[in-house]
Design brief:
By secondary structure, the protein is an alpha/beta fold. About 45% of the residues lie in helices and about 10% in strands. The protein contains 22 helices and 10 strands. The strands form 2 sheets. An 8-stranded parallel beta sheet has the order 1-8-7-6-5-4-3-2, covered by helices on one side. It starts with 7 loop residues before the first strand and ends with a helix.
């Protein structure tokens, strides 16, 4: 894997939005992340791109042994092959107006290669110009084709006869094996928390260990919410002889897709802790790592391997991006949601691009539509939501559950059901109508049951419609709240120029700083959790919300002290917004415990 020549990367988005993004951006040195959860979609995309490239497609049937891993390996190898061919073609192009090699260097940040490129353009001496061009060709390298494995999606599998398969055939382990056995020299991103079995399984593949040159072919990236999580997971992996090459900090709420809220801990203080403890983190983990390599009789590493600290979540301006890299010294940033408006990069059909351009804050909600039970950012006007409401209105809520990637619930059957499945929802609704006497509680619980959507199917919808593989597919759009501040379709060059501050920004006027937006999201989330607790839908420890509020107040105080550093102009407005956020926290009061109160009344009546 080559060193990144861009300061940003495109994170994984859904299962289908970035499923083939490397084929569109890696040739320009931009790294992106592919989801490998849906092998059915992967196989369809492999056929599509194989035939598009004029190559012979050999299908991998579900009846084939280890078909999931083999499908993933084959698709990743195809992308690796096509990207390398594209990069090689770019290297041999003439530096003419509109050429791909010109675009490659025009997209770069203000780096040495870009400066050399502009020196070549201005050069009048033919021999010197030719020499510069030959040197520039050697600098053309692809972006990384990284993969994402959501550690929570790790269902055990059975064969055609219903006999349980060995543990290594589980969803996540098979996906990891598919990546590990591919030709890629890149990284796997582990997200959604620790999966000890999965992490231990990675140690079975030599590509995750250093070779005689001290190089690691398959690297590990951890998506983390705070420093403590990074240290715990990093130590666990180091004890297995596995090095974490990047800690990818993501905002708990100001992101797209699944949102893993912290206990009111905000991005700024979290980044500050990483900044202060970075050297110690690396030193501690290297000690554990070196000892493990020795015990495993692997190649020894005297000095710590490189470690990146990056951030993603809610970024919208070049100023915000630059501040993170300069003050917190992060090695890069992730830009996800804004790229949903760049059709040449991400799979979104024309109809949904229009909806995203028109979306305001009311059109994007932190919903309960994920069958994983984790809050999920959702576009209310998507085809998936329209389809879900139609099913509800006809009295047949839920999905037939064609993929079964998210089956987890065993309330009503020995075989797990997905919370978005029709079979589960009809039985759960009947149970609530029979047993829940409080009308408000019953309606709220039934609403959350029917809110669950078929994300396995619908998050692939954008890719299926965009490629023409299934024009009737219903797409779910997992944009973050940041989408409401972008209102137009952009080209790749326009978006990259926006990130690097080379153009007038594309955001709507009045967009709050992403630190402010995150606080607002946490306040709103706390209010909703208090509402749900009052209905008996969830239960927290007695001191949970007081601790939550205190963490928010500490974060606000931190930003107040940092205001002059955080914003170059508009400091007074920034401080005023912080003050309003603090007052809104103080005004939050727990709601009456409806479900609990009714239980007490019933008890007294007996």
């Amino acid at each position: 894997m080559t060193a990144s020549i861009h300061t940003f990367q495109i994170p994984v988005m859904g299962t289908g939005f970035t499923i083939d993004t490397p084929l569109k951006v890696a040739c320009y040195g931009i790294s992106s992340v592919v989801s490998v959860v849906d092998d059915h979609l992967i196989e369809r995309m492999r056929r599509y791109h194989t035939e598009k490239a004029g190559l012979d497609y050999v299908p991998i049937s579900p009846r084939t042994d280890d078909f999931r891993a083999r499908r993933i390996t084959a698709y990743l190898n195809l992308m690796h092959q096509l990207v390398n061919q594209h990069v090689d073609a770019i290297k041999h192009e003439d530096f003419t107006e509109g050429s791909e090699i010109q675009k490659y260097f025009e997209l770069l940040p203000g780096s040495v290669p870009r400066q050399m490129y502009h020196e070549m353009v201005r050069c009048d001496d033919p021999s010197i110009k030719f020499s510069l061009q030959e040197n520039l060709r050697e600098l053309v390298v692809p972006g990384s084709i990284d993969v994402n494995i959501m550690t929570k999606i790790d269902r055990s599998r059975k064969d055609d006869r219903g006999i349980p398969l060995p543990p290594e055939y589980s969803e996540a382990k098979a996906a990891l094996r598919g990546f590990a056995e591919s030709d890629l020299n890149s990284s796997v991103v582990f997200s959604a928390g620790m999966n000890q079995g999965l992490y231990a399984y990675a140690a079975q593949f030599d590509d995750f260990f250093p070779n005689e040159k001290g190089e690691v072919k398959k690297k590990i990236i951890l998506k983390v919410s705070d420093y403590r999580s990074a240290l715990i997971q990093g130590k666990f992996l180091a004890k297995k002889g596995l090095w974490v090459s990047e800690y990818r900090i993501e905002s708990g709420l100001n992101c797209g897709g699944h949102a893993f809220a912290t206990k009111g801990h905000l991005a700024g203080p979290i980044l500050e802790e990483f900044k202060e403890n970075r050297d110690n983190l690396i030193a501690v983990l290297h000690g554990v790592y070196a000892k493990s390599l020795s015990s495993l009789e692997k190649y020894q590493i005297e000095d710590p391997l490189p470690v990146k600290i990056t951030y993603q979540g809610g970024l919208g301006t070049a100023e915000e991006d630059r501040f993170l890299r300069e003050y917190y010294q992060v090695d890069g940033t992730g830009w996800g949601t804004p790229f949903l408006l760049v059709p040449e990069v991400v799979n979104v059909d024309d109809d949904h691009v229009e909806k995203l351009c028109a979306a305001d804050e009311n059109d994007v909600e932190l919903s309960r539509c994920s069958p994983l039970g984790v809050p999920f950012w959702n576009l209310r006007t998507s085809a998936s939501e329209e389809h879900r409401h139609e099913k509800m209105e006809t009295g047949a809520p839920g999905s037939p559950c064609p993929r079964k990637y998210l089956v987890t619930n065993t309330e009503f059957s020995e075989d797990p059901l997905c919370l978005g499945a029709h079979d589960y929802q009809t039985q759960k609704i009947a149970e609530l109508e029979k047993n829940e006497s409080n009308k408000d509680v019953r309606e709220a619980k039934i609403f959350e049951v029917m809110e669950k959507a078929c994300l396995c199917r619908d998050l692939a919808g954008g890719a299926l419609v965009r490629t023409g593989l299934d024009l009737k597919a219903t797409a779910a759009i997992c944009c973050g709240p940041n989408i409401s501040h972008f209102d137009r379709v952009l080209t790749l060059k326009q978006m990259v120029d926006h990130i690097y501050g080379r153009c007038v920004g594309w955001v709507r006027p009045g967009r709050p700083h992403f630190f402010i937006k995150e606080i607002q999201l946490y306040v709103d989330y706390m209010k909703d959790e208090l509402r749900r607790e009052s209905l008996g839908m969830i239960s927290y420890p007695a001191d949970y919300f007081s601790d939550y509020s205190e963490n928010l107040r500490k974060g606000i105080d931190y930003y107040s002290d940092m205001a002059e550093t955080i914003v170059n102009k508009g400091e007074e407005e920034f401080l005023s917004q912080l003050d309003r956020m603090k007052k809104s926290i103080e005004n939050i009061r727990p709601e009456p415990q409806l479900a609990h109160a009714e239980t007490a009344e019933e008890s007294n009546s007996y």
